[in-house]
Amino acid sequence: MLDLIAKLGRSIINIIAMLGRSGLMLFGALIGKPQFSKQFPLLVKQFYFVGVQSLSIIIVSGLFIGMVLALQGYFILTTFGAEASLGMLVALALLRELGPVVAGLLFAGRAGSALTAEIGLMKATEQLSSMEMMAVDPLRRIIAPRFWAGFFCMPFLTAIFVAVGILGGVLVGVDWKGIDAGFFWSSIQSNVDWWHDLGNCFIKSFAFAIASTWIALFNGYDCMPTSEGISRATTNTVVYSSLVILGLDFILTALMFSN
Amino acid sequence: MSRKVEITVGFFMVLVICSVLFLCFRVTDPTSFASHNSYRVYAVFDNIGGLKVRSPIKIGGVVIGRVSNISLKSENGNTYKPYVTMDLDAQYDRIPSSSSLSIKTSGLLGEQFIDINFGLDQSIEHELDSLDSDTTTTTNNSNNKPAYLEDGYVISNTKPAMVIEDLIGQFLYSVGGSSAKDNKQDTNESKE
Known about the structure:
By secondary structure, chain A is an all-alpha fold. Chain A contains nine helices and no strands.
């Protein structure tokens, strides 16, 4: 019994210590004198790895999600004779929920796991400690550009995802099912609010970007420097970021759309 | 390698900018975030039915503003009444203040909106009065009512919303009432 309580306490202390380490890591990476000329090329390189290489999965899944949403919406709305508001359905569903969440999940799976594996392997092959030997701060050199790349790329990818999804909805609704294009666009334009829908989409997306990039970087930085440790860290990244994105989404939705 | 990376990242950024512009100008209404000049008018209703914040305000079917707030307010110690705040587009500033408001429903089950029915234009009334005699104009000026709707004006000439349950209730009541009366008359006749 006493053993059990001791175990519980130890695990809680471990969790708190982990949170502390992750906070310190982010603090060390982001707080400091900015050196744009030195960091900008690193950032561009990370934009390539994090953003550009996630582009194909984002575009393809956005297109198919928009198309499937339009098709299912069409089947349901025709039973009420309300297929003219299909555009509103697709656009609002993508902007409010599906865009940020699905782009976030895909990003965590595609870019987050890659970041974790890369940093984990750097740690296992002692590249991070050799950088410290050369008086290069690995937090500033390795973690910071990856964090900023993730922070900016995910909202960018969300914007592309939503835009492609709406175009996929147009493809199914207007070109295949023959809804009038004017009805389709006017139902979108009159119902999508500039701040309430579009702005909140990007707020959500930035929140998910911070959460999932932070989790990915920390899991890589904190992993056991063995091959098994790297594999566990990569799995943890995908699982934790997905759970945190879904949980945060509920909280943000409740705050944003409750009134 | 580095040059290729820069070019692909550049393409990525162009794609991002295109999709953000698409979302801003094609998906949302581009006129909606060019902030309109608007003026604020209030109205007291008996019943607002299903009116909501951001419901449209229309004249002859054209949207000229939106409901910005709905609350209950008691006027000079009277009972609480729904008090609707409306933002009207500043370019429509010549709406006669004697206009009446009614809450209507678009379609049978559609959303509810406020319809403005034009009243008599009081400036024309003034001119007619001044042609008539000089005494009436002085009385009209003394009651100090603006001829057109303006910021802060409270409209009290309103018609309550039609609540369909009430209508059905009244209908059923009237049908039931008349049949009961008929029965009474029948019994009276049978007594006789």
